[in-house]
Design goal:
Blueprint lengths: L4 E5 L9 H9 L7 E4 L9 H16 L4 E3 L9 H13 L2 E4 L4 H11 L1 H10 L3 E5 H4 L5 E2 L2 H7 L6 E2 L11 E4 L19 H8 L7 E5 L3 E6 L4 E6 L3 E5 L2 E5 L4 E3 L25 H9 L2 H15 L9 H17 L3 H13 L2 E6 L2 E6 L4
Parallel strand pairs: 1-5, 2-3, 2-4, 4-5, 8-9
Antiparallel strand pairs: 1-10, 6-7, 9-12, 10-11, 11-14, 12-13, 15-16
Helix pairs in contact: 3-5, 3-10, 9-10, 9-12, 10-11, 11-12
Length: 368
């Protein structure tokens, strides 16, 4: 059962007015805070490192909290080890932040990764998810393709969403930037879609699917334990369902029972629970040899234990070099069986190992 908190920010995640929102969310975890930030939503941009640096610096300078930056710009271009490491690090965090970018791009990377299962694990374990702007738009049953409609002019449709709000008994979509006024003389509210287009899109949704609107510089805090949503920040939230609109007023706390369109009688499947992995290299090596999901989890843990690579970023070269470093350490202390197991794990992953008197090197196995 979910026992955590889901914070949905309409925008302004690094604005001065939102600092107290983050501070309040951090306070839930006291000295046990383990925060990470995920860059996928803007992973298609050319300035990913700069955006991440700015975000991490904000939390460090304004809130004195050190975030670990998780780099996952593409599902297709990531190795299975990279994917597994990311999922492990998400599950082991108790505060996950994701923010601006493209909701369409984000769900394209996150759905095949089954990231929703890992985020549900965080909630189930009492953690906090804080999703803002584009990332917030992925949380519903369906996700709006903002850029495709607003910038490209495509027809109206929905992408599949992570559907995390179903864990709170809500069947809905999420529209951040709800009160946007950048268009001045034309309607850019409803996350740049405009109210007219949003109403047409709502007609495409399944029956009893609501719309959760979140104004800019505003946070809706969903608390599983109190079964309520609290509105803080600059403005309001909105619950649109079956032709009616309820304003969730700033400063109010609303019982979720008052806005549910579906009951909790249809439970979501619990996120998968992996058997705990030993941290002993010998045990992990044996688990690697089993293959499958357990083998991938163990190999990823071995790579992480090697502590090689730039902190917060998953570098394929560093991953392989890390396993080779662990293998060399095993050989140095006479653990030759473990060294052979690590070598076989790399070979099984498509890596060719070249041993010489000067040390070990590697290359990708030829496809020919």
């Amino acid at each position: 059962m979910t026992s955590g908190v889901l914070a949905i920010l309409g925008s302004g995640e690094t604005a001065p007015g939102m600092t107290k929102v983050h501070r309040e969310l951090f306070k839930r975890h006291g000295n046990e805070l383990r925060p990470v930030t995920l860059d996928t939503a803007y992973g298609f941009q050319e300035n990913v490192p700069e955006m991440t640096e700015k975000l991490v610096a904000y939390f460090d300078t304004s809130l004195h909290v050190a975030f670990k930056a998780l780099h996952f710009p593409s599902f297709e271009n990531a190795t299975e080890i990279e994917r597994t490491i990311l999922k492990q690090e998400i599950r082991e965090a108790n505060y996950v932040f994701a923010g601006p970018g493209s909701p369409s791009y984000a769900v394209t990377q996150w759905l095949p990764l089954r990231l929703g299962d890992d985020l549900r694990t965080v909630l189930r374990d009492g953690g906090t998810l804080c999703f803002s702007s584009a990332a917030a738009a992925t949380l519903g049953l369906s996700s709006p393709p903002i850029y495709e409609i607003y910038k490209v002019g495509s027809g109206l449709y929905w992408n599949e969403g992570l559907n995390l709000l179903a864990d709170f008994g809500l069947s809905c979509v999420v529209i951040p930037h709800f009160d946007n006024q950048e268009g001045a003389n034309y309607d850019t509210s409803c996350c740049y879609l405009g109210l007219r287009r949003l109403e047409l899109m709502e007609a495409l949704l399944p029956d009893n699917t609501g719309t959760l609107g979140v104004d800019e510089h505003t946070a809706l805090i969903f608390d599983a334990e109190s079964d309520s949503v609290r509105v803080i920040g600059r403005s309001n939230g909105y619950w649109r369902s079956n032709g009616t609109v309820r304003t969730l007023e700033n400063g109010s706390t609303v019982p979720l029972s008052e806005i549910r369109t579906v009951s909790n009688s249809v439970p979501r499947p619990a996120p998968p629970v992996s058997a705990p992995l030993s941290s002993a290299p010998d045990d992990l090596a044996q688990q690697v040899l089993k293959g499958g999901t357990e083998g991938a989890e163990a190999l990823a843990r071995l790579v992480r234990l090697s502590n090689i690579g730039t902190e917060g970023y998953i570098d394929p070269k560093s991953l392989v070099d890390g396993v080779l470093a662990a293998r060399e350490s095993a050989r140095t202390v006479g653990q030759y069986a473990l060294a052979d197991q690590l070598r076989d794990a790399l070979v099984g992953a498509g890596i060719e190992i070249h041993d010489s008197p000067q040390g070990s090197s590697w290359s990708l196995k030829s496809s020919s």
